[in-house]
Specification:
This protein is mainly α and about 120 residues long. The chain has a domain of about 80 residues: Orthogonal Bundle (Helix Hairpins).
Length: about 120
Amino acid sequence: MKKLSLFRIHNQLLLKNLAVVYWHIGGVVLWLQGAVAFGGIAIAYLDGKPIADSLYLAFITALTIGYGDMSPETALAKVIAIVIGFLGIVFTGIVVAASLRALEMTIAEQKQEEV
């Protein structure tokens, strides 16, 4: 019996499994992105900033990049930014879990093909 190596994973099979997994979580991902965008618009309203700047702030916060070039000013906008940060952590966890599930499915399918 051959040992399966990560370097021998078929790319087409992995891409197919990624597409299947992401298809199933697409609604959650869209909801999270909408929540981040809504938070950015709320920050724009509360802080009196342009919407583009506030959306930039929201998505940079959600992606946990945090360049530090912008920050919310009012207390409520800061609370919204914290919630956006937590949503970003949830989003990252979902993407990592989905990717690992697709990789797991690919390895299982390849083992089945080799038997």
